[in-house]
Design brief:
Elements lengths: L14 H21 L4 H11 L4 E4 L8 E4 L5 H31 L3 H30 L20 H23 L7 H20 L3 H27 L5 H28 L7 E3 L4 E3 L1 H53 L6 E2 L2 E2 L16
Antiparallel strand pairs: 1-2, 3-4, 5-6
Helix pairs in contact: 1-3, 3-4, 3-5, 4-5, 4-7, 5-6, 6-7, 7-8, 8-9
């Protein structure tokens, strides 16, 4: 009997070794940081990575409970780094225990396999972010009172949920950059994914640093809802290609979300912040309410929305052309079949090359006229 061949493990620190064991290495690093809390010497340094920093406490009366707010600062980089590690671990868990098991049942091609994994990861994230952001919006009055988007600017003091939401958002989209390598993304898909990852990082970080957290939050929640519907529809499409109704709902909500984004952006930067009582530029106070910053922010949002609409229109036109091209061969085939059935005589009426009538009598032959 021949010996069974064992799968050779890749060399240590090779590309394949790093890709296969990156989740375990990141887990060990995160556990090392958590273990640092157990020792008094390292706890004061490790706490920066785990807990939200820059707490500001206000008390109105001696009997009332203190109100806790948070600001941002350089120590947030350490916190974002830790939660980026957590995002990498969760990404690996969802991939191994959920998406890979579904992929084995569906038997998808390599192209659909890559898109299925992408939509699966983003569907989980958008669902979680939409639920979290919606809960924050319901607790606040941003939806019922749009003037709070620019009233009392700068909004340098954030609630714990708002700051932790932004820290996790930035950490997630930063983790998406090394995942392009860990997940062996195809070269032709890397530019497309890099575009929207960098756009997310730039816009969310910009809203966080410029103290526009309220505007960013109210724009992210409907956007995440639209993206959730898109990726959920794509997952259903990969399981059954006849399930395409979700894309129609996504297309409608996509256009509405773009209009809502432009409307709130113009209202905030063009009218609200322009008429605020304390205009001026002060990094110490977190006040960036100057004309240059407002125009730059509004231009960045408008250009991004225009780019997204351009991609959306091209996508819809491509699908429309593919639908028409698929319909043309079907029409040609049905037309050719109907034409052939009309021209083709009944073979049952032919016997040895001669036409036979239905009653069995042979037709009379015409006599040729003599010249």
């Amino acid at each position: 009997m021949g010996l069974r061949r064992k799968n050779k493990s890749p060399p240590v620190l090779s590309h394949e070794f790093v890709i296969q064991n990156h989740a375990d290495a990141v887990s060990c690093l995160a556990m090392g940081l958590l273990l640092g809390l157990m020792f008094e010497v390292t706890a004061k340094y490790v706490i920066i990575f785990i807990t939200v920093q820059y707490n500001v406490t206000y008390t109105t009366d001696d009997k009332s409970e203190p109100i806790h707010f948070y600001e941002y600062g350089p120590k947030d980089i350490a916190t974002i780094f830790f939660y980026m590690l957590i995002a990498i671990i969760l990404h690996a868990v969802i991939q191994e225990y959920v998406l890979d098991k579904i992929n084995r049942r569906l038997h998808l091609s390599k192209t659909k396999h890559s898109k299925f994994n992408e939509s699966g990861q983003l569907a989980f994230f958008h669902l979680f972010s939409f639920a979290w952001g919606a809960s924050i919006l319901t607790a606040e009055e941003f939806i019922t009172n749009p003037t709070l988007l620019w009233k009392d600017y700068p909004h340098s003091h954030m609630l714990f949920q708002v700051k932790f939401f932004y820290v996790c958002q930035i950490a997630y989209w930063l983790h998406a950059l090394p995942e392009l390598y860990f997940q062996k993304i195809r070269k032709e898909d890397i530019p497309r994914q890099l575009y929207y990852i960098c756009l997310y990082i730039a816009h969310i970080s910009g809203a966080y640093v410029l103290n526009l957290q309220r505007l960013g939050l109210i724009l992210l929640v409907p956007h995440y809802l639209v993206e959730l519907i898109f990726h959920a529809s794509r997952l259903f499409y990969f399981s059954d290609e006849n399930k395409q109704k979700g894309f129609t709902l996504w297309a409608l909500l996509f256009v509405m979300a773009r209009l809502l984004t432009l409307t709130l952006s113009v209202l905030t930067f063009g009218f609200g912040l322009a008429r605020v009582e304390n205009p001026g530029f002060s990094i110490a106070d977190g006040n960036f309410n100057v004309l240059t910053v407002r125009i730059s922010c509004l231009a960045a949002i408008c250009l991004t929305q225009a780019w997204m609409m351009w991609k959306f229109i091209n996508f819809q036109l491509k699908k429309w052309r593919e639908h028409i091209q698929n319909q043309i061969p079907k029409k040609k085939i049905t037309y050719a079949k109907s034409k052939s059935t009309k021209k083709e005589p009944n073979r049952a009426n032919f016997v040895n090359g001669a036409v036979k009538l239905e009653d069995g009598a042979s037709p009379r032959t015409r006599k040729s006229k003599a010249l």
